[in-house]
Amino acid sequence: MTTAYGYIRVSGKSQINGDGPERQDTAIKAYAKSHDIRLLHVYFEQGVCGDIETMGRPAFIELMTAIGPDCRTVIVERLDRLSRQLITQETCIQDFSRQGITLLSTEPAEYDLMASDPGRVLVRQVFGAIAQ
Question: pTM of the entire structure?
Fold first, then answer.
């Protein structure tokens, strides 16, 4: 069975107690269950703007520190939960790829975020540009 970590981010302090974290958590857990993935932990970035670089976020740093040989997969609800900036999304995907980390989205249109097929990359980048 594959193991994974989840990553949740809400941008505003007022969203911390809203439906966003619960919605993201539910989506990540449902995706993991339906794909026979054992979820080890879900990291929650509370009130951190999507414009901030990933390594400037406390929960993301905790997530990256936890990734090791026994768990090389991260699940997000959507790519824009990772970042709202296209360049940050693409840099993160590239960094994950170089490190052998798989990034998955619960959104069907985004499932294969690590795809290198030019058509899939284009679709991923269009979604990223829209989020930005």
Answer: 0.85
